[in-house]
Amino acid sequence: xxLLTLAGVTKFFGGLRAVHQVSFAxxxxxxxxxxxxxxxxxxxxxxxxxxxLRPDAGTVTYAGKSLVGLRPHDICxxxxxxxxxxxxxxxxxxxxxxxxxxxxxxxxxRREAVAVAGEVLELTGLAEKAGSMGQSLTLxxxxxxxxxxxxxxxxxxLLLDEVMAGLxxxxxxxxxxxxxxxxxRGITVLLIEHVMKAVMALSQRVLVxxxxxxxxxxxxxxxxxxRKVIEAYLGEDSVGSEAPANE
Amino acid sequence: xxxxxxxxxxxxxxxxxxxxxPSTWQNLLITTFYYAYLGQAWNILGGYAGQLSLGHAxxxxxxxxxxxxxxxxxxxxxxxxxxxxxxxxxxxSLGIGYLGFRFGLRGFYFILLTLAAAEICxxxxxxxxxxxxxxxxxxxxxxxxxxxxxxGKIPYYFIALGFLASASGxxxxxxxxxxxxxxxxxxxxxxxSEALGVDTFRYKMIAYAxxxxxxxxxxxxxxxxxxxxxxxxxxxINHSVDIxxxxxxxxxGTILGPVLGSFLLELLGEFSRTYFAAGVAGxxxxxxxxxxxxxxxFLPRGVYPTLVHWLRRRPGDSR
Lengths: 247, 319
Hints:
Chain A has helices spanning about 40-50, 70-75, 95-105, 110-125, 140-150, 170-185, 195-200, 220-225, 225-235, and strands spanning about 1-15, 15-25, 30-35, 55-60, 65, 80, 155-160, 190, 205-210, 215-220. By secondary structure, chain A is an alpha/beta fold. Chain A has 2 domains: about 1-75 and about 155-165 and about 190-245, Rossmann fold (3-Layer(aba) Sandwich), CATH 3.40.50.300; about 80-155, no CATH class.
């Protein structure tokens, strides 16, 4: 049964059609990859699912409930939480405090929130950095913190916006393992990703967005061989020669 | 244990101090506590929630005028009128907050909104006969403690100290609660907070109302310390600056920031008045301004955070 369903979702920015008639369903406990060239509308789509933008047309339904018009914190409360493409740690708060803010979504009191945050830091491998300030973290740790904060809210669905961007292959490998571990705990994952290694390793199914429209859908190995997908990434001349580039 | 002992000794010193010092020093300490109190109230919204208000004079004035008018017209004790004023100030802040936060005003735009709201209040006060209009409102002195009127400075000293202690207590509780964690998160990144389930609109409104309600009794204190209220003094932008400058200098978003900031600025003001007021007119104000600039330049994060940073630094540590 699908947990999140989009039907005919459309968004214009002035005359620009950023997202057009996008429909798909995200199944419970699935890992669904969302790929597409820069500017394809992936993040705009995320904004609409997470309540930061309101679709101009179409419906977004989560667990039988319409999300259109709800604000991001409402959607978080329903169990769907997002991360940001550019990690946004609370810079002048400690790593622990950062995660406590997320945990307070689940528990009412600070003391319990600190305990929840401690567990999440353990899981995400940030326990040693608990006392460091957000601003002192390296990029890989910021990405982990972004994930840790989101996990602390106790989500059913995790929306990950390019968590791999800017990481080296070793760090990417570690983060893939972490996302697998999170998924193993029963959390559904929708991930926007440019790093093909991560998309191929994690996704059970992949959606491809180009110029705001879905152009392909299927298992990752098939999608990367899809003619339209190769065209979208490399231009029409290249068709038949190469798959989407690894970044 | 050491901290507890130091705290107890400091508290005891503050309790016997006013009986041993001359009246000018008493005045200095009263003003220090009083501005630290106002700064602490401002700190909830400005320092913790990160919403800078340049219009807190409005809530101050609501507290001052409400308690004074209720006492003059209906004989209601300012001790009770103070709470009415706090309630009205909270309502006013919710009105301004609704406009600002519902329409997503951030940073400078929110500052301008608060400034404009205080200016509107000033103009209204200037034209309301019941508030004394331009001439101002005089309060007759009758040394009756129930009417918040006292002989001598010492009672005011203890009231100001009590106010400051209560406001600091409120801030201490906020800091340890979910509310505090959410306010600080909003200050650091509003969108990220929303994404993590923080109802940013609601929590900003709570912070604003708490801050305004705490500011109002400061106005009541002022009314019965000065016995005279004039819109161009209590509702002037300078007064809003006076309220916000102490936590900014002392360290926003810390409990001790407004207290240290208030002590420092009071000492700077007294120093420049004592040594530079006699000669050229206004020179003391210039000196005060220069000293203030120096403080802000060298302690950009505020006195308290800088102090903590120095104290934590071990000798020989390069950082």
